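Hi R.,

Quick one: here's the Alpha/beta fold hydrolase sequence you asked about.
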Amino acid sequence: MKPATAVVDVQGIYRVHTEFYANPSARKTIILVNGSLSTTAAFAQTVKYLSSQFNVVLYDQPYAGQSKAHNDHSQPLRKEDEASILLELIEHFRADHLLSFSWGGVAAMLALAQRPARIEKAVICSFSPLLNEAMVDYLEEGLLHLAALDGERLGQLVNSSIGRYLPSLFKRYNQRHISSLDHHEYRQMHAHVHQVLHLDSHCQMQCLAAIDIPVLFVNGEHDAYTSPADVQLFAHHLLDSRFVTIDNAGHFLDMEHKAAWLQCQSALLGFLAEQPRRQRGYRPQLETVQAIAV
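And here's the predicted structure, written out as tokens:
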């Protein structure tokens, strides 16, 4: 199935490449938020099962993929900017659900903390509120390669750490993709990683209390970087949080093997199909949102 593509003007500042997978029988639309250094292609496995039940929206950040040619890259985007872009795309496509992967969880949860009226449920994959030792080591080494604009070594790092459980085909794709990024993409990620590593408090959990919809957190059993144990911290800060651990999977979940794909399919479609436990009351959007990062 080929998506309908469009470049959407956002806030009169950004022009964002979007892909819309239409399902004529679907009553709901879900928007997907990429992880760092990735494009819409990273969701190819996820779209296969989500499009059976929903209209699916993908997009590239202004600095990435097919959005790059339409934007100025003189300054890195802040995560607050990415959250604002997401909020506008939610309205543009009238999205009902949200799914994020890895670092996309930062912008996703910033956006959710503003209580977008349309969003009924969210799925946050491979994301943690904690910077554990494995993640700090990964980020610190990655920062060196990003500063040097060394895409070859950065790709090798990704494949040997968070991507260690990926099939060899996907590792080759990762290496080819990461090693051929534009310099502004490395600078973008460098700015974000540097900020994360040097914040006094890397995750402002108090902003999460504003999220008033059901949120499902999905993590891989063997993911040492955003572990199932660490993500349980969200239970103390959200009104309605659920947790699923994908058996025998690492950071990349449904990309790693067929059993993980099937388990992700079951967990996500089951959660999104549930009737809400309560009716959401109207609450005005918050005027400001505190920073959250992992």
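Residues 281-294 have pLDDT under 50 and may be disordered.

Cheers,
M.
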